[in-house]
Specification:
66% helix, mainly alpha
Length: 116
């Protein structure tokens, strides 16, 4: 969920420089959730971004995640064999965060303009 899909030792990550990265991620996640819930009834494509997020989360978790048996099955018997490193699926998460977060931010901005 925090958009880290590559965990090899010896590399320097943004989280090494930002000890408060959890707070920044929480802001992004809350905006995306808000955008999803606010726009769900009005925009039908929001469901698609929710599904993209769920699939991306499941696949980015890899063999250490909650769907490890399913991931192993897909890895051994489908084209996912070329996707050895799960960080490739984090792109699905970031894509969903960007669209849903933008919807949430747009709603907040609209509400603030109407208040003034």
């Amino acid at each position: 969920m925090g958009m880290y899909g590559f965990w090899r030792e010896g590399y320097i990550y943004a989280k090494d420089f930002l000890p408060f990265w959890h707070i920044l991620f929480l802001a992004i996640f809350i905006l995306a959730l808000y955008g999803c819930f606010i726009s769900f009834r009005r925009d039908k494509y929001v469901l698609a971004f929710g599904i993209i997020w769920l699939v991306g989360f499941a696949l980015a978790s890899g063999i250490k995640g909650p769907l490890n048996d399913t991931f192993k099955l897909l890895f051994e018997h489908t084209l996912l064999k070329g996707m050895r490193d799960t960080h490739k699926f984090v792109a699905m998460l970031t894509f969903s965060y960007s669209i849903l977060g933008a919807l949430g931010l747009a709603k907040i901005e609209k509400d603030l303009e109407n208040k003034n």
